[in-house]
Amino acid sequence: MSGSYVLGLVGAGIDRSLTPAMQEAEGRAHGLSLGYRIVNATTHGLGVDDLPDLLRWAHRLGFDGLNVTHPFKQAVVPLLDELSDAAHDLGAVNTVVIRDGRTFGHNTDWSGYARAFREALPDAAGDRAVMIGAGGAGAAVGYALLSEGVSHVDVYDVDADRAAAAVVRLAKRFGDARVEAVGDLPSAVAGAGGVVNATPIGMHGHEGLPLAADLLEPRHWVSDVVYFPLETELIGLARSRGCRVVPGGGMAVGQAVGSFELFTGRPADAERMSRHFAELTR
Asked: What is the dihedral of CA 257, 18, 199, 168, to 10 degrees?
């Protein structure tokens, strides 16, 4: 493997992303020359139709890889030469490795969440879970939960068609018996061991709760994918109820760990990256 890497993040409104700092710091710890650039689609006026040109220029300019975020995760899929099994199953890519003139698409959203879930709740496998939100993050979280052995995932979304589409995609890999779209959130939560927020509700500018506060009980474990702020209103409420919690920072670190390893072929130090993330968000 090379000792020098040029990487980037492509997405809209990403100037505050912590990914560059995390990737560059881990690179330094490995003695690598690793440069990481932000390509903010909002600033540069880039849209989905510009993705083919963007990939061509990334290759011409010597980039070794790109992280991809909203609104390009789905649109980039048909433009790549190869996909990992998970990226194919999810129809979404957040990590593109550029090597020998070819592009390889991966999804570390699901593996990042799986890592955080496994570390925080090793005994939750076998539980029934409710996932609120069936967008791109939701599909990845559902994939992770089912991969980690959660017995059943109920998928709720205010857009019923979006929930149904996510269920179809997940059922192709995990079977119809383990995943279901639901329209009655209170009943689903009452019958579940855990609740996951996979919506933007709770992040800065989208304050609030994704479900009624009285639905949470001390027996529930509660997880959030939002990490701006780390202590969302949902996580704070769950703590106050005595619930076990999985804040969104674990998924963010897990995503970065997975991407670093794919880009460089070197094992990342997850604990070191977690400490750095904590420093950045303090």
From this structure: -40
